[in-house]
Design brief:
Elements: H1 8-21, H2 34-65, H3 75-78, H4 84-92, H5 96-110, H6 113-120, H7 126-137, H8 145-159, H9 164-178, H10 183-193, E1 195-202, E2 205-211, H11 214-228, H12 271-288, E3 304-305, H13 308-313, E4 317-320, E5 327-328, H14 329-339, E6 341-346, E7 352-359, H15 364-374, E8 390-393, E9 408-411, H16 413-418, E10 424-428, E11 434-440, E12 443-444, E13 448-449
Antiparallel strand pairs: 1-2, 3-4, 4-5, 6-7, 8-9, 10-11, 11-12, 11-13
């Protein structure tokens, strides 16, 4: 027992553990087989646990012998220190922080006898005892001691089979069971600490930071996970175009074959990138919602400024109101494609000469019609629902494309971003519905109906 000051059993455990490690000393790890290396790692970890048990037992005894009530007989005072950890630092030459941690950990373990025994026997390491003991310790003043012992016993058993992170999760669950009333004040404090900030633009990126209460985070996480999940929805692939073999017209209109065909355009986004795209889509949809508060009589709108030539060609830069770095004219063109634009003529001195009407903006009625037809992003495999999508002109407006349902389709922000540079191409079929194909170099798949497949 650490609290009892006896380390005989711990010393025996250390000797047994070292006996198993000794044949591999001096270390020649490259010469070990995989199985031998795994076994050696386990044995070495046991040696460490046994050694840690001894250091904590020593710290506990230094603490006992350095009690201030002992006066001049205090071991710390005899060694010229004020506190027991100062004495340990002097004797062992460890750092002040580590010496103090040993004493505090030994004091904490004394309040959890089951964990103390497990550490004394080498069954638990200091790290394991810390992560499972911290949440349980908070419940000690109010919880039934017998229930605390049961919780610690189960956590020790769990720690023998699972990594410390999994045992820590279980310890938090046990803490909520032992002291259910303790959750509410933590929750209230968390609500007061919630925040979300958007920093200034640097190198084309804006840093988003924040803290959310569990309730808010869970709602957001559920939406993100549903659309990041790689298993959500059926995997859709294009059949290789006969043109790849050099003997067919890429405008061939054979039907789409699904499920197991080759040569698909793959979504290269990471899960983190998908989450960022989904969050953007959710806020864009919220800006269009009827119940969203207006700003200056209009729903929240991104104000992007560029020239007519740069907007039409997609070359140059544009400026977003409120941001300190420019975006590309290509990005401005995509924003205008989804939300419309207003032409303003300025004099060389900045005087407004003419303010045109908003152009190329799909109406809410047109969006509802597109939502009923497309049901979501029409790129195969994408599960983004209609309410989060942007509208896209199949025939570009600069080429005479009209702002109507026949010449439009729904795309998520990411695929709208890709549509001009590939690998996808879109067009309107003879019956007025969108068709899609993918192009790689001189090769192209057949044109096929663009059909949204929702997440399952």
């Amino acid at each position: 027992m650490i609290g009892g000051g006896s380390v005989t059993a711990v010393g025996e455990g250390l000797g047994a553990a070292f006996h198993r490690v000794e044949p591999s000393l001096p270390l020649r790890l490259p010469a070990l087989t995989d199985d031998q290396l795994v076994g050696f790692a386990q044995d070495a970890e046991e040696v460490l646990r046994q050694a840690e048990a001894i250091t904590l037992a020593v710290a506990r005894e230094f603490d006992r012998r350095s009690d201030e009530s002992l006066g001049e007989d205090s071991l710390a005072r005899k060694l010229g220190a004020k506190k027991p950890w100062g004495a340990i630092e002097t004797v062992t030459r460890t750092s002040a922080g580590d010496a103090r941690a040993r004493v505090l950990e030994s004091r904490a373990l004394a309040k959890l006898p089951v964990l103390e025994d497990a550490v004394s026997s080498g069954a638990l390491s200091r790290a394991q005892a810390e992560v499972i003991g911290a949440p349980i310790l908070k419940t000690v003043p109010v919880a039934d001691p017998a229930a605390v012992d049961i919780a610690c016993t189960e956590l020790v058993e769990l720690s023998a089979a699972l990594p410390a992170s999994a045992a820590a999760d279980a310890a938090r669950v046990w803490a909520a069971v032992l002291d259910p009333d303790g959750v509410e004040p933590v929750e209230k404090a968390a609500i007061e600490k919630r925040f979300l900030t958007l920093g200034p633009a640097r190198n084309g990126l804006v840093k988003l930071t924040g803290l959310l209460p569990i309730e808010q985070a869970a709602a957001i996480r559920a939406v993100l996970d549903a659309h990041v999940n790689p298993r959500a929805g059926a995997e859709v692939r294009f059949t290789p175009s006969p043109d790849v073999l050099g003997d067919a017209d890429p405008d061939d209109t054979k039907p789409l074959l699904t499920g197991t065909l080759d040569l698909p355009p793959v979504d290269t986004r990471s899960a983190k990138q998908k989450r960022a795209d989904i969050l953007h889509a959710v806020f864009t949809a919220a800006a269009r919602a009827p119940q969203t508060p207006t700003m200056g009589g209009a729903h929240p709108t991104i104000l992007v400024t560029t020239t007519k030539d740069e907007l039409e060609t997609g070359h140059g830069v544009a400026w977003v109101d409120g941001e300190n770095e420019p975006i590309s004219a290509h990005a401005a063109k995509r924003i205008a494609d989804a939300g419309g634009y207003q032409e303003v003529d300025l004099s060389p001195t900045g005087e407004i000469l003419n303010l045109g009407r908003t152009q190329r903006c799909f109406t809410p009625q047109q969006r509802r019609a597109l939502a009923a037809r497309d049901k979501g992003c029409i790129i195969p495999g994408c599960t983004t629902p209609a309410r989060w999508c942007e509208t896209h002109h199949l025939t570009p407006w600069k080429d005479g494309g009209k702002t109507n349902v026949i010449n439009a389709a729904l795309l998520c922000w990411w695929h709208h971003h890709l549509i001009d540079d590939g690998p996808y191409q879109l067009r309107t079929s003879k019956d007025g519905t969108p068709e899609i194909r993918w192009v790689y170099g001189s090769h192209a798949s057949p044109w096929v109906p663009a059909i949204h497949r929702p997440a399952r």
